[in-house]
Amino acid sequence: MGKTIYISGPEHLLMNGKELYYKKVDLCRKYGFEVDPLPDSYFDPLLPKDQKIKLALLRVERIQNCDIIIADVNDFRFSVEPYGESAVELGIAYPLGKEMIGYMRDTRSCGERYPGKKLSGSNGRYTDLNGNGFEPTCLNLMLSQSAVIVEGDFEDALKKLKEMDRK
Amino acid sequence: MIRDKDGNLLAVAKIAQFTCLLKDYGNTFEEWKKIGLKYGILCVGTTATDKEYLPIEMISAEPNTPAFWQSIFDNDIRIMEQCDLCISQLDNWRSQQPDSGTAWETGYYLGLGKPCFGFYTPESKKKDTEEYGVFEDEDGVLRDKDGYAWEQPFDGIFELVQMAYDFEGACKLAREQCSYLWEE
Question: Which of A22, A24, A23 minimizes the C-alpha distance to A101?
Answer without folding.
Answer: A24
